[in-house]
Amino acid sequence: MRASLRLLVLAVADLPRSRTFYLQAFDWELAVDLPVYVQFRVPGGVGVSLYQREAFSAQVGTTPALCPTGACTSAELYLEVENLSAATDAILAAGARALSPAAARDWGDEAAYFADPDGHVIALFRALEQTDPGG
């Protein structure tokens, strides 16, 4: 089967709080803005949506587990940014919880990790310059 990723949906406990967080952190354009669901247009083509937890439960037929306070979920949004320092400042100002500071990662990116108000992991990264080993 071939499948294309078009939208990532996050179940959230407090939709107004999460809506405000994502707007402040990323300034993404709202494509859909309903009482139980919001969808953002994200540069690069894949959208991100926030779905109020109880309404999400009704849609999928089961209740998603709540993330305990201070913990994080087992998935992440991996977002490329132009200026990692400025993006870090913005996400912290919006209310993110720092998980891991910006550092060079083994796969060739510099990345910093945060948790949104519901514990969803958000990684902000920039690609490190690749050097030619041949000179």
Set down the secondary structure blueprint.
Blueprint: E1 7-12, H1 15-26, E2 29-33, E3 37-41, E4 47-52, H2 53-60, E5 76-80, H3 84-93, E6 97-104, E7 109-115, E8 121-127
Parallel strand pairs: 1-4, 5-8
Antiparallel strand pairs: 2-3, 3-4, 6-7, 7-8
Helix pairs in contact: 1-3
Notes on the structure:
The chain has helices spanning 15-26, 53-60, 84-93; strands at residues 7-12, 29-33, 37-41, 47-52, 76-80, 97-104, 109-115, 121-127. The chain is α/β, with parallel strands linked by helices. It has one domain: Roll (2,3-Dihydroxybiphenyl 1,2-Dioxygenase, domain 1). A hairpin with a 3-residue loop joins β2 and β3. The longest helix has 12 residues, at 15-26.
From the structure above, extract its key features.
single chain; 135 residues; alpha/beta; 2,3-Dihydroxybiphenyl 1,2-Dioxygenase, domain 1; 4-stranded mixed β-sheet; 3 helices; 8 strands; 22% helix; globular
